Predict the 3D structure of the following.
Amino acid sequence: MAGRLTTWLRREGGESAASDGDEIARLRAARDAAEAANEAKTRFLASVAHEIRSPLNAIYGYAQLLERGDAKDTLAAARVIRRSAEHLAHLVEGLLDISQVEGGAMKLSRETIRFPEFLDQLIAMLDLQAQAKGLALVLERPERLPEFVHADPKRLRQVLINLATNAIKFTDHGTVTLKVEYRNELATFTVIDTGIGIAPEDAERIFAPFERVGGPAAERPGVGLGLAITQALVHIMGGDIRVESRPGEGSRFTVRLMLSQPLSPPSEPAPEAGAVTGYLGRERWVLLVDDDPAHLAMVRSLLEPLGFQVRTASDGDSALALAAQVQPDLVLCDVMLAGENGWDIARQLRRRHGASLRIVMLSGEAPDSGNPPADGPANDTFVMKPFDFTVLLDVIAGQLGVEWVRAAGLPRGTAPAEAAMRLPVTVAPQAAAHCAEIERLVRIGHVRAIESEIDALAALAPEAGPLAERMRAALDSFDLKALARLAQAGASDAA
């Protein structure tokens, strides 16, 4: 009996000890996992900075050139800045989408893109970075490249930029080349550099997330997320990627993707509507609520030249006070304010001013992030940041019911007075006297009298409305020469 008791005690004690050992091992594993997760989070946040550095460099560089007046082509510089900013927005979305890769939830778009133009834009975005290191950036492509292909432009751009920026980063002298080949709907992109190269034992590791290889590469900026993202995107697009490299001799990254051609060339898009230069009808008041002075200045610079009366507020109290004072037609309110919730401000505005006040929320977060109230939405619609100006103007037109005055048939950015001179002038015969008087007043510079005479012209007949609006646009830009020519044209046509 004693022997059996002793045996039982030993067995139970051993099992208890084993159980304690298992629990300790489990706790250690949980601790290690938590530490690894925390480290991964830190490295991920650092990787975001790495990934945005290239397009941000293009924006920063061209902005400096414009500021110094050294940019040879200001319009081209502005386009590079805009495309780089668009890429940044797409990149942020892409980094968030990468989490869906393992679950197979990532969706690709299938768009028809102008292939040569796409490549030219890509090189323009990267050229400043290459120049900063004294490198030649070369695009090699066949003469007979298809004009149109089907692709996801955002993902394809992300892949090629990641490879090209990596090549620039690890190349100190020589050339970075993007070579493009296309045969039987198979597109081959090869990024070739004359950089430090990759050791054979590191060729596979470079595609692992957060992996930094040793040697000179480890001393370069970045945390090694770019190639992991690139490989994942290539596989999602149904392609493959491989690398050939020798230390000290440079590297070749090759991506192969099926990019089919459309069965027939896409129809030409309708001519782009001319730039918005104003709106018809009564004067409208807009209240901007945001704690970012740069954002306030940007939106104000967009709206005021169009004829809107704009007031700004950086907090809830100021917004409510201004709204009570000016009775705005529209409020553009940011969701995230310093120490305040934009949704709360919107709800107070709605209670005080009713449904007639149109409220548009602006934010970089999802539309449902502000837990809208159960008693009805505080806002009329939502616009995600960053936004295209045309998107915001479309929203404003929809909310206020305004009809835009456009420089018809002209590219966006054309000056109102310039647009006015290219448009036909058709007015009623009885308008000749008003047009002649406007021409006379222009010569003496009597602005208030000109404004009154334009109002009289607009009231004369519906046919004179478009001409009057063009005159107001010219007067608002203080282009008196253009205004005089419009008056002459109107007088001649009316006569």
Summary: Residues 50 and 58 are 14 Å apart (CA to CA). The first strand starts at residue 111 and ends at 114. The two ends are 130 Å apart (CA to CA).
